[in-house]
Design a protein that fits this description.
Layout (H helix, E strand, L loop, with lengths): L11 E5 L5 E5 H5 L35 H13 L17 H8 E3 L5 E3 L1 E2 L2 E2 L2 E2 L8 E2 H8 L10 H5 L2 E7 L5 E7 L15 H4 L10 H4 L1 H8 L1 H12 L14
Parallel strand pairs: 2-10
Antiparallel strand pairs: 1-2, 3-4, 5-6, 7-8, 9-10
């Protein structure tokens, strides 16, 4: 650390869920009123801001967490209708999941499976002027089906800007550190990003705390009990919250 770099204190709160796993949340972020401004002034993730293009964080292919994540998204892609997906033509008709995967994704230089990029953005991104509206076709289709979009999108797409670090101690006890995703988390690649997502002041004008705004995402990560305990703690000025007793193993 540079001798001239200030040292900043960050508050955290932890909850132990019913399985005995510990979830630690970064309070300043989850108390903030950050909200996603995709299509509403978001400048994207490249160094040169691009509000008109409305590509948001979709300028690059979405990375898949694992084979289950990939298979889930490909099954949704099979059923996506052309009126909700601008680049529906990229999908081979009547293809099995393996052929679909080869058509819509690729292996990047690091050996990771990611979605293809078409005209400067993810193959699933609808552009300005498309009748069904801009944004992720997977997201739009889920909303139309009255399903949480995170159930149909790649995990990385719904977790941002949340970052989760999983730790296991010598006795196999799990601790999960949940915080805001920072530019430094991209490593050297962070220097080439315009990380407007959580750095832009315009993104901090939401009507709710992040804890409430991203409740569905927190439920997917940690369960209902932890998500509601976090909301209660954040919105009641640190009031003590009781969770069900952990299961003994």
């Amino acid at each position: 650390m540079s001798p001239h770099q200030p040292v900043a204190a960050t508050d955290w709160v932890s909850f132990v869920d019913g399985a005995g796993e510990t979830w630690i949340f970064e309070l300043p972020f989850f108390r903030s009123n950050w909200n996603c401004i995709f299509g509403n002034g978001c400048a994207g993730i490249e160094l040169d801001p691009d509000i008109a293009g409305q590509r948001g964080c979709c300028s690059y292919g979405a990375h898949f967490a694992d084979d289950a994540d990939l298979s889930r998204v490909m099954r949704v892609a099979v059923a996506l209708p052309s009126d909700l997906w601008q680049h529906h033509g990229q999908r081979p008709e009547g293809a099995d999941l393996e052929t679909m995967t080869e058509a819509l994704t690729r292996i990047d230089d690091e050996g990771d499976r990611i979605t293809n990029v078409v005209d400067g953005a993810c193959v699933f991104l609808n552009r300005p002027g498309f009748d069904a509206g801009i944004g992720c076709a997977l997201h739009l289709a889920a909303l139309k089906a009255e399903i949480e979009p995170l159930e149909w999108k790649p995990e990385v797409c719904w977790q941002l800007p949340i970052r989760v670090e999983h730790h296991l101690d010598d006795h196999d006890n799990s601790t999960h550190l949940v915080r805001q995703w920072l530019r430094r988390d991209w490593g050297d690649a962070g220097d080439g990003l315009g990380w407007w997502c959580s750095e832009a002041p315009e993104a901090y004008q939401g009507a709710n705390t992040v804890a409430r705004y991203l409740r569905a995402e927190i439920v997917a990560l940690a369960g209902d009990a932890v998500a509601d305990a976090l909301i209660s703690f954040v919105e009641n000025a640190g009031t003590t919250v009781s969770l069900p007793s952990p299961q003994r193993r």
